[in-house]
Amino acid sequence: MKSDSSVRNDAGALAGIVPGVNLAAEPGRMDFYERARGRHLAPLWRVLHGLVTDRPAPRCVPAIWRYAEIRPYLMEACKLISAEEAERRVMVLENPGLPGESRVTQSLFAGLQIILPGEIAPAHKHTASALRFIIEGHKAYTAVAGERTMMEPGDFVITPSMSWHDHGNEGDAPMVWLDGLDMHIVNLMCASFRESYPGKVQPLARPEGAAMAEAGHNLLPVDAKYPAQTSPLFSYPYRRTRDALDQLARFRGADPWHAYKMKYINPVSGGWAMPTMSTWMQLIPDGYKTAPYRSTDSAVFTVVEGRGSSKIGAQTFDWGPHDIFVVPSWVAHEHSAVGDAVIFVYSDRVVQEKLDFWREDKSNAA
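The structure assignment produced for this chain is given below.
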């Protein structure tokens, strides 16, 4: 049994202890606590306020990765390891508040993947869903569930759960994209599976553009069945997204908190394009400053075009094309643009909405 002094120090150090607990009486309870621990029991009143907080208390922090600073590391990685050896040559974006955990937020993964001309990232599949947001390069492809799509900067591409996928670069320059995955949500549920394909690439069963023909024109084949919650339209070209934002801005005033923000949708259900990660594109016009806003989802922002700055909590980050920054849960943020800015965003909002605990604050976001 611990000494009275150590018990008092331990009790006082418990950040989650219920304020009404009489700390002076705790030494007399320690024998009970020790016996209860032997039966795998623990007193809730000693940890309650650490488990049920008054407001979100994210461990992830505001952070930015400036592409000009991190791109040299991608190129150096290409000299050190092949895409085949690494399977996926990815530099993980680790949130400074979560070092060593391969997390960009507490629930999401982010990494920059690079493939050199002629390389192939071999086929595999896993429970975690993935998104690709293309940063730079041309003439590279991803093949998903037997259909290939070429990738261009600004494109948003989906890899659904347990779908075979491989990537290749048929161009003459490096191809870089942002990988976003829900693996930490999957691992929380202890539901992860993974398989490697017997060969480097999967066989193609559908011509390129088949998914777009079936689901990309506000029409669906009358007898088609889509049981999955993920959009059957797995590639969203940037040229279409940019045009949609421009058209919206022509007839609709800018929202005070978001300027112009359009979500990627599943054309079958009208809901989010992915069941575990919300994705949208945001246009902030030249000179516009958004009002302070906060929500319970932590979000990852990737700049496509333009320059500007974001105040996130007490910090201000200047950003430009291809920079990536993070806004943690319930941290107030506002953005301003110099020249029209376009930003791709993903978060765990869709999961929180399904569980009925997503919240936002547009009052003053104090």
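Interim note for the steering committee: Residues 36 and 42 are 6 Å apart (CA to CA). The two ends are 46 Å apart (CA to CA).
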